[in-house]
Structures are given as C-alpha cells and as structure tokens.
C-alpha cells in the first residue's frame, strides 16, 4: 500500500495545531493508496447515485436515495483514516512525525480532526448528491416527493458514517497496523450482527452490535436502538480509542 509517507511530511516548525492538522490532511490524501481509494469511492458514488435515481418512486422522502448514494463513502472513506494512522507505524516513519512534533497527543488530536473533516465532507457531499438526485428525478418523471426534513432524520442518515469513521480511527490507534485495523474494521460489524441473531444470546449481543448503526436506515432510530448504539460505540470505539491514545503517547519509539 505503499508510498513513503516521509515525502508528504513537511516540517512543522512552530508546532501550531493548525499547521499539524494541515500536515496530517496532506498525508491523508497524499499517498498512492489514498488517491486510489478516493478515486474508487468517487466512481462508486456516481454509480450508486445513478442507481438511486432509478429506484426513487413518487411520494417517497427526498432523502431515500441517501442510502445508496452514501454507501461507498460509508464503507470506504474510513480506510483513509486507517492508512493515515497506521502507515507511519508500518513503515517506521512515526519517529519522523514525533520528532517534528514531540508532543504526541497533538498528532493524535490532529488525526482525529482530519477524521472529523473527512466525515463532515463525506456527509455534506452525500446530502448534496441526494438532493440533486431527488430534484432531477422528480423533475424528469414529473412526480412529487416528500420534502420534509427533521433533525432526527439527519441524525439517522449521519450515524452509520459517523460510527464507521469512529471504528476505523479507533482500530487504527489501538492496533497501529494497517492489516489488523482493516481486518477488524470489516469483521467486527458483521460478526456482532451474527451474534445478535443467535436466539440464546441475542438479547445481550445487541448491546455490542455495531450493525444497528446501519440497520436504522430501514428500522429507524428508537429509544432502545439508540441506547444499544451508544453502548456498542463505547465498547468498540471509545475504549479502543482511549487505550490507543494513551499507548501512543507513552510508548517508547526507537
């Protein structure tokens, strides 16, 4: 996956947070792997946008196409954060980064800010494309849509992307290995879903199932599913993030 990250790391002499974030943002999109991921995501997003237009029917909500439009970004964009965190450790260039910015917590915070920026841009782009698809399709076929919008509706749309982005970041900080992080990122959600479907343990397994963050597209967000998502996020995202943060800040790099 491969590019030398050192080529994309510029000295941050004043160690200002804004400078560190800009440096991390350049690294997030500056390798061959990240460029390939971005291009593939864009192509898939365009394809899914066209497909969502075909599926849209009269009387449906304008943000129904969001599920198809955003699916590539929901699945693939967290890989950019995994690469941003892990490639430095895989290649042994973390020492370079921490030499430029000795206070390691700043680096972790900067990578987290980049994750938030990628999430925000992905969500905004998905909403814009969804709006374009809905307006264009309804105009071409001359049917009306439900244009009502609510805060809970936007939360329902944003949650799967937010959870996946958080999971990718947490697994990357926790393992600091690209292979392990990507494996965990793709394995944990389906495995927890399968466990939640086993009758003997389903009542308990649902509380650690990240699959609920995607199923709310269909089932909606209820008080129980909201509580289950909160618990599963704490277990799979918050705890690994904190452990990884502490370990990176304290780990000896030689």
TrEMBL record:
Annotated keywords: Membrane, Transmembrane, Transmembrane helix
Transmembrane segments: 35-56, 68-86, 107-133, 153-175, 182-205, 225-249
Record organism: Bifidobacterium longum subsp. infantis
Name of the protein in question: ABC-2 family transporter protein
């Amino acid at each position: 996956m491969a590019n030398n990250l050192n080529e994309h790391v510029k000295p941050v002499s004043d160690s200002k947070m804004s400078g560190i974030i800009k440096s991390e943002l350049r690294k997030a999109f500056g390798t061959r792997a990240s460029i390939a991921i971005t291009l593939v995501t864009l192509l898939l997003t365009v394809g899914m946008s066209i497909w969502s237009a075909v599926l849209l029917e009269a009387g449906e909500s304008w943000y129904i196409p969001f599920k198809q439009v955003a699916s590539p970004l929901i699945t693939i964009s967290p890989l950019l954060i995994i690469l941003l965190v892990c490639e430095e450790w895989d290649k042994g260039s973390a020492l370079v980064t921490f030499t430029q910015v000795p206070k390691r917590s700043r680096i972790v915070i900067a990578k987290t800010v980049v994750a938030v920026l990628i999430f925000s841009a992905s969500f905004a782009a998905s909403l814009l494309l969804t709006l374009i698809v809905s307006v264009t399709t309804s105009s071409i076929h001359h049917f009306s849509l439900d244009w009502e919008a609510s805060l809970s509706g936007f939360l329902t749309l944003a949650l799967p992307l937010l959870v996946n982005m958080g999971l990718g970041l947490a697994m990357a900080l926790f393992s600091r290995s690209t292979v392990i992080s990507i494996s965990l990122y793709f394995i944990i959600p389906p495995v927890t879903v399968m466990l939640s479907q086993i009758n003997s343990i389903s009542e308990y397994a649902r509380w650690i199932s990240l699959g609920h963050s995607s199923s709310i597209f269909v089932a909606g967000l209820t008080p129980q599913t909201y509580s289950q998502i909160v618990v599963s996020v704490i277990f799979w995202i918050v705890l690994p993030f904190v452990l990884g943060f502490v370990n990176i800040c304290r780990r000896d790099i030689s």
